[in-house]
Every structure is written in C-alpha cells, then in structure tokens.
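Below is the record:
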Amino acid sequence: MRWGRLPAVAICLSVRRRSRMMMCVTDELLADQVAYYRQRAGEYDVTAYDDVAAARGRIARLVAQMQPTGSVLEMACGTGLWTQALARFADTVTAVDAAVEAVAIARDRVRSDNVMFEVADVFSWASEERFDVIFFSAWLSHVPTSRFEQFWQLLRPRLANGGRVLFIDEHVDVRDKEAYVPGQDEIVERQLRDGRQFRIVKNFVDPKRLEQQLRALGWHCEIRRDGSDWIRGQARPAL
C-alpha cells in the first residue's frame, strides 16, 4: 500500500488542529500504500524474496514451527505464498487483502478447499467469526504509529478463547535498506521496476520495544529472531 506525496504538516495554531491534519495525511498515505501493492502484485514475489524457491522453504519451516491450527485469519495475505503454507495446518483459512491484483494471484496459487479469499481493507474488514489464529506476514511494519493501538484493539474481539496472534516481519537491523523521506521516521520511498515511485509506511520491528508496547496494551508477547533479517512473534491477550 502506498501513502501520498503530501507536504509535511505545517506549523499549526493548535495541537488539536495538528492532530487532525496528521490523521488526514495518514489516511491519504494508507490509500496510496494500497495502490502501491496493487501495482506491485505482478512483480512482488521476485522483488520481495529474490529466490522464491528458497523463500518457500523458509516459509514452510516457519509456519511448521508456529503450528497455526484450527480456524485461521490471515490479514494482508498478498500473493498467497504464506497462505499456501498455512492451509497445510489449518482447518480453515480466511485470507484478506486490500490489493485485488494480489488476491487474484493468491486465488490462482492456492486452490485448497479450506481457503477463502476476500478483498477488503484490513482496518475495516468485519466478521462475526472468532478465529483460533490471526496471522500476518510483513504487515505489522506497514501499520502507522498512529494506528498501532487501534489495530491491536481490532484483533482482540476476533480471537477465539485461547487464540493466538502470529506474525512475521523484518528486524530493525535491516532498516538501512530503505530510503526514508527526510524528516519522516516511518515513511519510505519505493520504486517499481517501471520506474514509478511511491511512498509507504515502514516501521521495522525492534523486538524488545514491540514486546513492551504490547505488554502495555494487555498482550503477552514473545518474539524470536529468524536469521539476520526476520522476526517471528506470538501474542496472546493477557488474562
């Protein structure tokens, strides 16, 4: 998903006005972030993983370690590489993504009877079903700081009793690979193969900091490193 090229928020006459303006920028940027991943869908696997065959092996290993059994909600499923692995363990997988082009690739890739795809915004998608596992890969780092608490509040009522949130993302140690917009701590510039440029949110994961943040929101969280670039985490609502 891509966020817009709006100018930096100007000096405001009041804190309240500044907060409203920042929220507008966030909404615009989130819309652009979706547009970016829609346009990137056809090249995503190769540009994200380079060696897709090796990535499949790594994905299979990580999913096997996490054991996502029962009913699984996959948020921001993308092109379905992780969905395919999840389907081998789960009774059912509901895979949601806002990028219709990515979902089309995922549907073609994953033809399992226990998988259902939906095109929807992750922040607004609603269901009365409660899931044993909520899973997302390379999504949490695209959640803006201003929506972090809101996002985790959305997850809690979607979990069944005893349910878990499982996630994969990139470690803060590889942050330097991105081109951050000057003066912006969480907005990066990305370029597609055809030269088009976009701006998106990217908040790499600092495991200790994330564990502290989630603890403050009422979650028990454990994060482990996988290689030099990824982390895998598990979170449960605190009793």
The radius of gyration is 18 Å.
